Fold this protein.
Amino acid sequence: MFDSEVQRILDFVARGIGVRVVGAPGSGKSTVVRTVISNLEKTGVDVHFIAGLRTHRALPYSAIKGLGLELRPGRGGVFDIADVLASQLAKAGKHVLVVDDLHLVDNESLAVLEAVRRRSDCPMIATAPNTLVYSRGQLAVLNSGREALLQLDPLHYEQVHTLLAQVLGAPADAETTARILTKSAGNPRLIARIAETASLSELLVMKGRQWHMAADTLWNEHLSGTLEALLAELPPDEFEALHIMAILGTARVDVLQRVVRPDVLESLERREFLSVLDDQHNGTIAAISPPVIADYFRGEKMLRDRHLLRSKIAGLLEAPAQTARPNTSMSDNLPRALSSLRREKGDDDAITARHIHEHNAAKERLRFERWESNKTASNAAALLRVYWGAPVNVTRAARVCAETATTGGDPADLLFITITRAMLAIHRGEGPAAAVALLRSFAEENPQQAEEVENAITFISASHGRLPAQANPPSIDPNAGPSPSSGMTDLVRGLLELYRFQPAAALQSVDGDDEDDAFPQLRPFIRGFALFAAGRIEESLVFALDWRAEAKRKLDQFGVITSSYVAVHGLLYRGHFEEAEYLMSSVFAMGRPGFVVDSLYDAMLRLAGLRHTTTALPPALSIAAQARTEVADVGPLPGIGKGAYQLIAHNSAHPATFDRKAAALVKRQLKSGYVLEAVMTALLCTCLCPGRPVLDLLQKALRGSGITVHEQLLAIAGAVVEGDHQLLGLLLKHYQPDGDTYQVGMLLRGALRRHVIDGDTAAADAMAQASSMFAARFPSANEQLSFNSFRSTPLTEREIEVAILAGHRTNVEIGEHLGISARTVENHISNALRKTGATSRSSLFMLVGNSLPPR
């Protein structure tokens, strides 16, 4: 779980720099330190380990005596002990001081450490809570030498997925992973304990090859000890405050401040037991973090105290809403949107997911009760709209569709109910034919709705099968009278044009306001993705990220998912992988959504898994395994069909075989009418492993759609495929930066790898030179996506580091640079050559390196 963090610490220590590791309780600080110690000792480093203990922090010298120093009788003062420890650190060889839980070390031991650090330049690794207010003694120890700071943030969805597989021995399904992430707020210790105790309590069961929830809750009595330890340091007033908050649930801060002192709330927030965020009314709300703490206080053992506290806080939930803050606006630009997203990465997406869940559950419960008391079409439509974004209660939704009175209902509401019935039929596996039959039956009974029904049928048919070659206008009964439009015609037309890869026509179809839209979130979705398809990546990203921020503020799960899907494509296309993975992780944390956007949820699982396959991560732990497999290979939008993911995840070892399979998939996508998906598949395959069959299909599709923004990329790809290195050099020399700059770099690296795999040394050398020149002219701060899955066995991070240096340095120089022996370097190179099939150090560097000499 912490390989990258461990490696960073080892690199700092090798350069004589100390490291301060900070994080919340349970964030993995001690685990990271233990792994670092193990790695250091394997390389012959003497580690001097000091552990702070909660029960010993009042005992003088208790921490430093844990080193087992040999002291002469009567020489037990600060400087006496410091002399002995300093003499040990001065012995031949490399030494490292490690202090775990610095905040629990007694003052006398801190004094010894301060004296030692003044005499020795030995690097020190120390762990502490990230909210610790350091004492003077602690600061004196930390600030005695060069120091790097390593923050352990809460885990995101993909990391939780990996950790659960390690803890349980097999991966968990999407719903289980999301629930554990939400309950634990990404805390590694809580993730492991929730999974272990839920398995012990048979709340998790194995079905197939994945763990699934056997009940609606994961709370069990075996978790009590873990939570008691987590809360052990809280004073009584803060403990009672958490109890009150567990009763209130997510509440506005102004309500909480009536029963909890502001200083107590501030202390809880500082300790990270309280998460504060904005709500949809421009106010500020607070919730317990991690949310499993609320489950602890709501347990049966707290019943009596709960009754006492309820009497104390009675009536406070009806406090007036806060005054809305003025709405400030900023200029729309990509740096601002990306900066906002990066700041959000430090937030707790599990808390946001929980808040959205609570909001959706309360709204669903209220609307269902309203429908039960009066089963009108308007009440039914209001309830069913919740299920288009929030998780669907299939039994309740089916009951509403069956029992709602249709007499005298608004035609638009009746149509919405029928469309929901149709989508529900698809969700239950009955297929598009059953959905179309329901809609045609409704049209026969309501001829005045014929146009809107035909629009709905076109939408369902085109989205779940095959796109017609040309959109035909729906047949309208001339005797049916005027049709009350719900705004579907333009939206369906725009969506079909998007599928056909006609972004200009799609944008034209959704030009205007959305006042009459039956499905308000569809118009911005078409607009945002059409901008992306047209090559206006920056505009699409800004639009989608701003839309997502607004949807989060309104607790609109439907809007969050649809906007995130659009934004993810733009982020991945520009190489912003960390931002894209965070954004997808925040969506996955919400669990499986309603039946309308669940296909986008699965598409993002595959997109995240696609990056795993191209970076050679173990496919068994890829979150793409959580996506549904009972779907077609081709789909209306990228990622909805599983074909592209399977092609890259399970490709053949030889590029020529990959060409054949990729071309066959793109032809199937084009034949189905899903030109947008075909173009995106062909673009990705061309950049990962450029070949003539796929490039020809890509050029033909782009010409047919009238898209010219990729002309420079196509010309370079043509020169690469033809092996015309003179033309390639001219094209790269005169290349003008455009939206495909990242793709050109990926294309050149893909060609380099292909030539190395094919054993064409001359072509590989020429491509390495071209790639190096392009990278020097257009340096990218983003990681380049590479087709590492051609290798049967992935390289480790250390092997990749050695391979990058192997093209320019000797084994001795590499060993000195990385702090390892020349023999170890030789072993890494040998392993890398075996795994990649490369025949020399030079070809290994070209295959793995970034084509630039390391600085």
